[in-house]
Design goal:
Helix content of chain A: over 70%
Distance between the termini of chain B: 6 Å
Largest sheet of chain A: 2 strands, antiparallel
Structural class of chain B: alpha+beta
Distance between the termini of chain A: 51 Å
Number of helices of chain A: 14
Number of helices of chain B: 12
Strand content of chain A: under 5%
Shape of chain B: elongated
Order of helices and strands of chain A: HHHHHHEHEEHHHHEHHH
CATH class of chain A: Mainly Alpha
Order of helices and strands of chain B: HEEEEEEEEEEEHHHHEEHHHHHHH
Number of strands of chain A: 4
Radius of gyration of chain B: 24 Å
CATH class of the largest domain in chain B: Mainly Alpha
Strand order of the largest sheet of chain A: 1-4
Helix content of chain B: 40-55%
Largest interface: A-B, 61 and 63 residues
Largest sheet of chain B: 4 strands, antiparallel
Number of domains of chain A: 1
CATH architecture of the largest domain in chain B: Orthogonal Bundle
Oligomer: heterodimer
């Protein structure tokens, strides 16, 4: 049981590429859920179109990676419009189920044999992000202090990822402070009141869905670039649940909520993974659980965390309980 | 957002146009890829009665007998061998690599001779597999409530016959979804909670019945099912008593509880995964049966029994809701909670009974679902979205709506395999959900004021 290396793992997780990527996607979700009150449970669909926009453009059509990123973002806009037309007029709980269903529909189609020439079907696509890593300014090797170190590839993705987190947060900050953002929060607080002031609620919801969706697609594109592969089945509804856990942990409706949430979430998850693995290795649990179960226990932990947070601190670490409405309108 | 009870003609036209727009967008998404196929190949997906079969070797040889290529099926059962030219090829399945519990349905079916591949075609061929011990040479379309075998071009009975066959399979699937979704709908109706952990009640039911019907207990499946129903009801009651009632007392918001139920679902599902592993199992009884045949329709006695029992249970639930005191009280609470409470109905007691009944029905439906397919750790979660689709299609909160909606979902899922690959069957069912929400957000039997 080497506590230093387990702790190192945890710290690596909290700053690693995944934490940055999930922070970006959670910022998008924050625009939906935190600021507009849209119960979007299909955020993973935006990540999926972002990721596949990159992968398909490069691996199937041979376009440049940067065009691919733009294609991914464009797909997110289209998806938001298609998704928003039928669902945004629905009450919150209907919206949740319709969006989660839309995410699953998209995943089924991307993995189907029909789409295989384009998306690679269940196998997905691989090795499409070389131009990104060619720009890597860090020479190969490992960087870090003691047990906390990253290889040059992760370091490059991390750098880009956290810069994007800062830029997108700044953008969202400016937007929600603007009159436009005030209307969004008015829609969240009381849709009827916003409407009686002459605001086109539907249109504002749609703009919010597009903005948050595009941010989610940025996260998805970076996720695909980071692992240099896309597979439809990694874009399942559980990813959205992760994002909700992150957002609620940090505090929905706050600028730093998704960032703090992602850092803490990934620290807990990777720390706990590493701890369990070495505990299983040291035979603490006997035959009760083995190494293969560690992944499952991670989900138990996330689920438990989600329940406890919602029961005792639904506003999260940074959120203002008075500002958070959690009832169906 | 409130919707007016009436709808103008213009708005109706607009809605239809929107439906068409969305449908077109999806069609574009689907059909563009198929144009860009290149190079001839022979491929397929090897499926047994309970899912894809991996690690089976297939050999493609030219008509002269020279081997062209070999492939081994992947984890999802898919395989593909590229062939040099258009022409006729022989495809042979190496029966020695088949898992021990599977065999080919047709005797001598290990070689498909003279498979014609047209220029540019990716020809799909099918090796029908059945559980070992099934009498061979019974050429039935073999549709079960689980994934049906994909369409085989130019083979099998007439397309109307196949439609009838799939319709029957769809009804079987639909009544199973209906049984499981009644609890979901009643819980929503009485408490407003969208219970994401409902799928886990289904899995728990199937698992409990599995545990008690295998060693060391080896009870008959009927007895094991009764135990499963009791356990399912108790788990449902425990959720209500231990979690949701205290949360309601504390004045928790509905979204708060909705997200909590997602957390609860994650916890339960992965505890089941740790406890039982990720393998798919089947009940030891009623697995090997030859089909009954009526004209184009064939159904195994097992699926027929499942369908009939489910319909009887549904009728029983309808009787309970319409004729008994507590059933009427349930509908009253569903209609208007405050009014029901004011007229002296003990709402907490009704809600508890709804959870007990809903949990028991979900567990029962889980056994039925496991019986027609397989028992595995996330079977309930796989069914959950279809249950939601059924519940919303019929109108949230209405038990009868849930039954109607579930039947539609089951039938759409099965009949879609007439034209589309089986892997997309759930996607069509969910797409119907979204299209119905567009036209009639309150669902087929729902009341207008609840919508939008």
């Amino acid at each position: 049981m080497d506590f230093l290396s387990i702790l190192g793992n945890g710290v690596r997780g909290m700053f690693g590429p995944e934490a940055a990527i999930y922070a970006i996607a959670a910022i998008g979700l924050n625009v939906h859920f935190g600021y507009t009150g849209l119960l979007n449970f299909g955020q993973v669909a935006f990540m999926l179109v972002g990721a596949y926009g990159v992968a398909v453009s490069v691996a199937t059509f041979g376009w440049s990676l940067w065009v691919g990123v733009l294609v991914g973002l464009g797909c997110a806009v289209v998806l938001a419009l298609i998704l928003g037309i039928p669902t945004l007029r629905l009450r919150g709980d209907y919206l949740a189920i319709a969006t989660i269903a839309a995410g699953e529909i998209l995943r089924y189609f991307y993995r189907s044999a029909y789409a295989e020439p384009l998306t690679g079907g269940v196998y997905g696509l691989r090795q499409f992000a070389d131009p990104f890593f060619e720009l890597n300014p860090f020479p190969p090797g490992r960087y870090g202090i003691g047990p906390i170190d990253f290889d040059s590839r992760s370091l490059w993705v991390m750098t880009v990822g956290w810069i994007l987190v800062v830029l997108i947060s700044l953008l969202v900050f400016l937007l929600v402070r603007s009159p436009w953002g005030r209307v969004l929060r008015a829609v969240r607080e009381d849709e009827l009141a916003a409407r009686s002031l002459g605001k086109n609620v539907y249109s504002f919801k749609m703009q919010s869905l597009v903005l948050g969706g595009v941010i989610g697609a940025v996260g998805g594109a970076l996720l695909a670039i980071n692992v240099q592969s896309v597979q439809p089945d990694s874009y399942n509804p559980v990813t959205t649940f992760y994002l909700y856990a992150i957002l609620i942990l940090g505090g929905a409706g706050t600028i730093f909520g998704p960032i703090i949430g992602s850092i803490i979430f990934w620290f807990i998850v990777t720390f706990f993974d590493a701890f369990l693995r070495s505990a299983v290795g040291a035979g603490w649990f006997g035959d009760l659980i083995d190494g293969a179960d560690v992944g499952a226990i991670r989900f138990v932990l996330v689920g438990l965390g989600l329940m406890l947070l919602m029961a005792f601190r639904p506003a999260g670490i940074l959120g203002d309980p008075k500002e958070l409405r959690l009832d169906v309108r | 957002m409130r919707k007016q009870p009436w709808r103008g003609f213009r708005e109706a036209v607009l809605r239809v146009r929107l439906v068409l727009l969305v449908a077109c967008a999806f069609l574009v998404l689907i059909f563009t890829p198929s144009a860009s196929a290149q190079g001839e190949s022979i491929k397929g997906t090897l499926r047994g009665p309970d899912g894809p079969v991996a690690g089976v070797t297939l050999t493609v040889s030219s008509s002269g007998g020279d081997e062209v290529g070999k492939a081994t099926t992947a984890k999802d059962g898919t395989w593909e061998v590229a062939v040099p030219d258009a022409g006729a090829y022989d495809v042979t399945l190496d029966t020695k690599t088949l898992p021990k519990d599977l065999q080919l349905r047709n005797q001598g079916g290990e070689t498909l001779a003279d498979v014609a591949v047209a220029a540019g075609q990716n020809r799909t061929v099918i090796f029908p597999l059945v559980a070992a011990g099934t009498p061979q040479e019974t050429p039935s379309p073999g549709a079960t409530a689980g994934p049906a075998p994909p369409a085989e071009d130019g083979a099998g009975p007439s397309s109307f016959g196949r439609f009838l066959q799939l319709l029957v399979a769809g009804i079987t699937f639909g009544v199973i979804i209906a049984i499981t979704s009644i609890g979901l709908s009643l819980v929503f109706g009485t408490t407003g909670l969208i219970n994401f952990a409902h799928g886990e009640l289904v899995t728990i039911g199937a698992m409990v019945a599995y545990v008690f019907s295998t060693s060391p207990f080896t009870l008959p499946l009927a007895v094991a099912t009764l135990i499963a129903i009791v356990v399912g009801a108790l788990v449902g009651g425990a959720m209500e008593g231990g979690l949701w009632r205290p949360m309601r007392r504390r004045g928790a918001g509905l979204i708060q509880m909705f997200i909590m139920s997602i957390g609860l679902a994650l916890v339960l599902r992965h505890i089941i995964l740790v406890a039982f592993g990720s393998r798919r199992s089947q009940y030891s009884q009623y697995t090997i049966q030859s089909s009954l045949q009526w004209g184009p329709i064939s159904i195994t006695p097992r699926d027929l029994t499942v369908t009939i029992i489910c319909i009887i249970v549904l009728l029983g639930v309808a009787y309970w809701l319409l004729r008994t005191r507590i059933g009427k009280a349930t509908r009253a609470v569903s209609d208007n909670r405050d009014l029901a409470e004011a007229s002296g109905i003990n709402v907490d007691r009704v809600v508890m009974i709804v959870w007990l009944v809903g949990g028991g029905l979900a567990a029962f439906g889980g056994v039925m679902y496991g019986l027609t397919g397989a028992v595995y750790w996330d079977m309930g979660f796989n069914l959950l979205l279809l249950m939601f689709a059924g519940v919303i299609l019929g109108g949230l909160g209405s038990a009868f709506g849930a039954v109607v909606g579930s039947l539609i979902v089951g039938i759409v899922a099965q009949v879609s395999t007439l034209w589309f690959p089986v892997e997309l069957q759930f996607a069509w069912a969910l797409l119907v959900l979204i299209l119905v929400l567009l036209v009639r957000p309150q669902g087929i039997l729902g009341r207008a004021q609840r919508a939008g």
